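Chapter review: from sequence to fold.
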Amino acid sequence: MAENKTYKKLVPFINAESEFANKVIRRAEQYGFAGADEIFIYNYSKMESDREEFLQTMKRLEKEIDIPFVIGMYVNRFEDVKKAFYTGASRVVIKYDIMPAKAVLDEAVGRFGTDRILIEIDGNEAFEQIPFPVDTLLLKHVDLGGTISKRILACGKNIVIRDSLLRNDLVDLMELPRVTAVSTNHYEDKSIYKVKNNLKNAGIDVNTFASSIDFSEFKTDEKGLIPCITQDYRTGEVLMMAYMNEESYNQTLATGKMTYFSRSRNELWCKGDTSGHYQYVKELHIDCDNDTILAKVHQVGAACHTGEYSCFFTELAKRDYIDTNPLTILKEDFDVIVNRKENPKEGSYTNYLFTKGIDKILKKCGEEASEIIIAAKNPENDELVYEMADFLYHMMVLMAERGLTWQDITKELANRRR
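The token string follows.
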């Protein structure tokens, strides 16, 4: 729902009130796979127990989806806004008719920014006359037959429109001035990529998969095929290699699902149609000679027909070497720490910390943080490197003690790219 200078967004909304958590999470996940830019999930119940249950569901959701999600909830105090952001939400929506005291809203905007708090208001209200301290308004019940365009321009805010599309047309809503997104529940169980392609054909600038190089410029073999190497977009692990022709390449762009050409069956092959192990496209690249495609995907289930996650599970040869890739080092070290917690090893310092408990772990984190400060005052960096590594280790012990993962931390960091 954030303003985007390059394209307009399609944002499905989910009413989570009285819904089962698993249903909300699965629906959000499917929206993400189908091509949604963001997801707006709301529960405006004023009951404290309902809010807490909703926030717990959002914490679970954060671990399942890889597109931004926006929370709409009843806010009575600043603490409510903090809790909403602590779920991993990229934005928080506050309803105008149940807005908190101005001091609470001002504190939330001051702490999290004018771009991360949205106000939801009915289009029949005089929203253009209200000096909201935010960048974006979420308008519902928009009447295209009135003076809505002039009113939007007069308010000077970015606009997200929430509409079920029962009365209004999506293209008309997208074409309104200052509209950055349309949020709707109209496309449940439908391909949002297809909707976006139709919008693009109508002249709306939306985010679709569009190849920067025409397939005719790829170097294919005599049968018009080009090899494609597929990677896990999170870890970079190579999953498989297959072939694509022009039709399968275009199908991949249109659907957002990896579609190959089967040489043995002489037909198109959408990975997952049989097994359910779909590969949802994140990025497509071509090599320097234009003769090999690299696909980065969200892999559902296993990529290999044997049931292995990657087809490249058979080791042929290996020599010992020091892996300094920060992605693998931090993950592998953390995995060792978690394993120590689950399977104690006699004489292990890590197990000593877990045995002593949270107070000892926190004491060590504090000590190591102080050592970093002292080391940073020295002209050479050797000691600083050592102390930073020490702190990271103890921090990972704390993460394991509290049930956190690196994904929890990196997702929060990703939300801070402003």
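Two observations follow directly from the output. The longest strand covers residues 279-286. The two ends are 15 Å apart (CA to CA).
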